[in-house]
Write a structure and sequence with these properties.
Rossmann fold, binds nicotinamide-adenine-dinucleotide, 9 helices, alpha/beta, 251 residues, 7 strands, globular, 7-stranded parallel β-sheet
Length: 251
């Protein structure tokens, strides 16, 4: 792990769900000092039972990231607590699968706020700090839904398509300041976000049949891509969306 250069790194992981926790564990194993932010304080408490995280330098903060002020505060308070900010991983998101004609405004607003606006608000706050420090790495979670027209995914797909463009503009604006901004785009991965859907009769098999690799993703599958993009080794990679999907977007 030394090759990736995370010793002394100060990392903020936003989201303690399936993918956020896997990234936090990997960053902790690589030697980073961590802050993990989530709205669910019970979930954050559970992290202290994780042997990897319990053995590392990890703090947690409970914040509902659905407003600009809360996102701004979460980033600045984390940077203050960590003594700086080298890495931001944004791994919160939600979905609600319905046909377009049955999607009320409240659902559209809720998904766009958490998936896209919180990325903008936290990215903007981290960008201000990282530009000042003269370096930084941001990794956001996009999805194969940003590229594929999945039925019943209108707000989710729009939020991820928007995210792909958002990271490109941030990447361009901050490239000369040593700040890189990238995204990983997983295919269907088993977490709380997808469990109920995949548990529907026949759904796991149907989704698996669409993946050339012949299986769904696991949270551990995304970790290598996130660690690379967050590392010192990725200093000349910016504005990219890296698909971690077993070939799902090839077919
Ligand atoms: N799991 C997949 O198949 C998959 C595929 C592609 C992309 N993604 C993306 O990866 C990211 C992480 O997904 P995941 O599978 O880990 O989801 P998850 O449901 O396991 O975790 C999401 C986390 O977000 C937190 N959260 C929800 N609302 C919040 C709020 N208002 N403020 C703060 N935290 C809040 C939840 O408490 C939870 O810990 C999301 O952006 C998701 O869209 C997931």
């Amino acid at each position: 792990m030394r090759w990736l250069g995370f010793e002394e790194s100060r990392a903020l992981v936003i989201g303690a769900g399936g993918l956020g926790t896997a990234c936090a564990r990997a960053l902790a194993e690589a030697g980073a000092k961590l802050m993990i932010v989530d709205a669910d304080s019970a979930r954050l408490k559970e992290l202290s039972d994780d042997p990897v995280l319990a053995a590392a330098d990890v703090r947690t903060l409970t914040v509902d990231l659905t407003s600009s002020g809360a996102c701004e505060w979460a980033v600045t308070a984390s940077a203050r607590e960590l003594g700086g900010l080298d890495v931001l991983v944004h791994a919160v998101g939600t979905n609600d699968r319905r046909p377009v004609v049955d999607t009320p405004d409240e659902v559209w607003d809720r998904i766009m706020t958490l998936n896209l606006s919180s990325a903008f608000w936290t990215g903007r706050a981290a960008g201000r700090l990282m530009r000042e420090f003269g370096h930084g790495r941001m990794v956001f979670f996009s999805s194969v839904s940003s590229r594929l027209a999945h039925r019943h995914h209108a707000p989710y797909a729009a939020s991820k398509g928007g995210l792909d463009q958002l990271i490109k503009v941030m990447a361009r604006e901050w490239a000369a300041d040593g700040v890189t901004v990238n995204a990983v785009a997983p295919g269907y991965t088993e977490t709380e976000l997808t469990r109920a859907y995949l548990d529907k009769p026949g759904m796991r098999e149907e989704m698996t049949s669409l993946v050339p690799a012949g299986r769904l993703g696991t949270p551990e599958d995304v970790v290598g891509a996130v660690l690379f993009l967050a590392s010192a080794r990725a200093s000349f990679v910016t504005g990219q969306v890296l698909y971690v999907d077993g070939g799902r977007t090839l077919v």
